[in-house]
Structures are given as C-alpha cells and as structure tokens.
Design a protein that fits this description.
Helix content is 43%, strand content 15%. It contains eleven helices and eleven strands. The chain has helices at residues 22-46, 59-65, 70-90, 98-141, 192-212, 216-236, 319-322, 334-343, 351-365, 411-424, 429-436; strands at 148-149, 152-159, 170-177, 180-188, 247-254, 260-266, 272-274, 280-281, 304-307, 313-317, 374-381. It is elongated and about 90 Å long.
Length: 437
Amino acid sequence: MPFSGSSSFTSPTRVARTTVRPTARWRAALLVSLVSVVSIISLGLATPADFRTRALLGLVPIAVAVLTSVMTTAVVTGVMLALYIALQLIDPTPSGGWAVVGPLLIGTGGLLGVLIARRREEQQARIQAVVDIAEATQRAVMRALPDHVGDLHIADFYQPAARAARVGGDWYDFQPSPHGVRAVLGDVSGKGLPAVSASASLLGAFREAGYHEADEREVARRLEIAMQRYSAWARVMGEEELPDAFSTALLLHFPPGVDAVDIVNFGHEPPLVVGADGRVHTPDVPPGVPLGMGALGAELPEPVRLPFRPGDTLVLFTDGVTECRDDDGVFYPVRERLPGLVERLPADAPPGELLRRIALDLHGHRHGPPSDDTAITVIRRTAGRVAPYVTPSDAVLYEPADSAALYAEDAEESQYATDMRERACPSRSTSSTKAIA
C-alpha cells in the first residue's frame, strides 16, 4: 500500500478507476497496429505470390478495438485502407478483383471493430458507474479524516482484506461535539458485506450519539442498541452469515479542557500509550462484553479515565495487527515491537510517521496477503487548545408547510407556493405568507 509523508496518508484505499487514459489507448493502438502490419507483410513475403496476405489487414481494426476507443478504431481502419492501396500501387495483384475485394474486407473488418469498440465502451461505462457508486457509498460509510480534530493530531491506516475494497468489518471515526472530541475503533465479527453493513450501522449511531450525548455511558448504550438492532434485522432478513453479530470496540472521549481521556472497552485489545518521554506502556483498561452482548443480560463496561497530556500518543489497532502471522505462523508482537519503532523516531516526528513505521513493520512481518481487515489509529495530543466544534446556533428550521417557499425563485412561483400551502393547511396561510414576505 502506498505511503506518503502526510499524517493522513492512511485514509482508506481508493478503488482504482477502470478507465484508460487516451494516451495509453493511442500507444496500445500503435503497438498492436505495428506488430500486426509487420507480421502480415512478413507472412506475405514468406508465402507464394498467389497467396495474398495483405487482405488480412482487415483484422487489424478488430484487434485494436479490443483495447481502444471507437475513434481510434476508425482511424486505424482508415490507415489500413491507405496502406492496402499503397501496397497495391507498389505491387499490384495478378487479379484485378483484389483491388475491390481487399478494401471491402478491410472496411468490413473496420465496421466490426467499431461495433466491438462501441460495445466495449458501453460496458466499461456501466462498470465505471457501478464503481463510482460503490466508491461514493464506501466513502459515506468510512469517511476520510482530517489531520487535526480539536487539539488532537491524528493519523489512520485501513487495509481491508478484500481487494479493491474501501470498507470492511473494521470501523473507526472521530466525532467533534460540544462535549469534546469522541473517537471509536472497532471490529465486527464475520467478514464480507454483512460485516460492512454492521459497521455502517455502528458508525451512524456513533456519529449521532457522539455529537448529541454528553454522557459517555449514553453513547455506549446507543452503540449497544445499534448492534442489537442490526442483529435483529439480519435475522429477519435471513442473513445466515451474521445472524448474531457482535463487535469489539474502544470508545474514547476527550473532555474539553482536561488532560485526560475516558475509554470504554467493549472486549477490544487495549490501546498502547506512548508518553511524551518516548516510553511505551499498556494502560489498565479492563475489557467488558462486546457490543451486541447486552441482550444476554451483561452490563455495559464503565468508562476508565486515563491521563492524556500534550505530547502523549495513543495507538489503537484491531486484531488484523495482533493476529498477523509470519512464515512460521508467529503473530505480530506489536506491544514488543512498538518501543523499538518509537526509539528510532525523530523527536518532532508527526503521528503519521509513527503510523508509517508500524504499517511497514507489519507488512514486513506478514506472510502473503492480509487475511483480515487491519485498522490502526494514532492520536497525539498537541499543546495548543483548539475548539473541537462550533455549534451552529443560527440554523433555521423549516416546517413542512413552509418548505414550498424554498423553491420559489420569483414572484409567480412564490405566489403559487402560497396557494398550494393554503390548500394544504388553510389555518396557517396568513402567518406563513407573512414569514415568507
């Protein structure tokens, strides 16, 4: 996976576009045409004079159509016709009929090539539309993160096990709120589309509850409800792959103006803390039951407050890190490896550099392609105090009876909207009209 110097280089993998640049098309057409022409002329020189191979030039547009556009195929057809006529002038065929048959064959080949190229471009356009929709959907689920959220400097890495995927069973996000910054990182049981659907449900619940709720326990409860609701939906829909889903997770809350972090551990790997002095330790964050297990009567885990001062760094990760195996089947020892990686870092290295070294070290340890989704998040508290979020106090809420006015672009449309509103709600027509005016 490519890396860059930015601390946010690790946003989820972008699905590669399937389109080919025009310059690449022309190069492909030129290469195929040259190879084909040379082969046909060489075959003509090696065969008897009565065996007219130059008519095979009609196959060149068909070969080119597989790789290039309709326009390129048409241009190649014209070039092949011109080449055939030139060869006829240089070395006329014994039978005059070939002067007509040859161009006819090349024209037929060109027509077939154009049809093939057009069909291929239509299919490619449909595929690209599906890819664009899938990419937009994945970006809505796992959105890109900024470098800074409040006084937190962050960097994230995500590598789904599925190729060309952007999301998977691992999920994480940051949510600024009037109550401070909240963060979450979790791992849904199972794989494939059901795990993605469960992740989307949890992320949606986190973004809403993380913004509106002041109490971390209430955010945890909302996540538990979201997991249970998804499991109930999966059972109704007959999704046998994930009928009783659960998710481990770490829920973090960075209260404003406090050098601390509150962590709720839903059966997840505890984070690692890198102090401002470079020392690495594992905090005491007792694991509770995973999300989705509350229906069994288990109590939700309680928040644990830890000191988190400027210069301190949190490293969060999923089991795609701890269960990564080498050639001998040995798991990646992230807790033992991290101190050495930190020691070799410059003092002013951003979180993205630490993350880059962890990801590269993990990649060097791994045997073969990843078998599980991998997510890593590095969070560093900076010295400056930055407001994490500005609550929109001037938001205007429109009631349904007033919504028609939003579409009025001139006086006539405004009057039409008023008339329609009077029919729908006569008792409010007077006050609504005054509000619009």
